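FAQ

Q: What does a record look like?
A: Structure on top, sequence underneath. For example:
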């Protein structure tokens, strides 16, 4: 399965047009995309597992497993993506049933998650407490 154009655009923005592995600046034409967890080892083509890389780094990495730091980074992106998706549902429910203050609070949390998703090195950005999002979602759904 190839990586879709919209996913490439999101990853390009998140990685700021730089190689995930060596940090060199790339152009849209010279970039390659890489599956941090290789597809041959169960990796998906979802944005959290895709990075921008230069040709040399992509070739050198090949089918090898990610380092612990690389794995930590993409797992954090994955958690942020999943939390954001749950938050989108909570926002939709809040717009129907909640107060304007609740909707505003959920929008603020969504922006925090977007910051993590777009952070090239997300380990430095703290995740909002999962319980906070789950509690808001549960209370609004009742």
């Amino acid at each position: 399965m190839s990586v879709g154009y919209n996913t490439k655009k999101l990853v390009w923005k998140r990685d700021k047009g730089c190689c995930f592995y060596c940090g060199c600046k790339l152009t849209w034409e010279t970039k390659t995309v890489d599956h941090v967890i290789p597809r041959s080892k169960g990796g998906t083509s979802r944005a959290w597992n895709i990075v921008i890389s230069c040709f040399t780094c992509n070739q050198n990495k090949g089918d090898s497993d990610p380092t612990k730091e690389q794995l930590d980074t993409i797992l954090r992106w994955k958690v942020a993506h999943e939390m954001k998706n749950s938050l989108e549902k909570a926002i939709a429910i809040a717009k129907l049933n909640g107060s304007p203050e609740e909707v505003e609070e959920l929008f603020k949390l969504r922006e925090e998650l977007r910051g993590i998703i777009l952070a090239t090195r997300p380990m430095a950005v703290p995740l909002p407490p999962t319980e906070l999002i789950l509690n808001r979602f549960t209370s609004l759904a009742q």
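Q: Is there anything notable about this one?
A: The chain has two domains: 5-61, 68-141.
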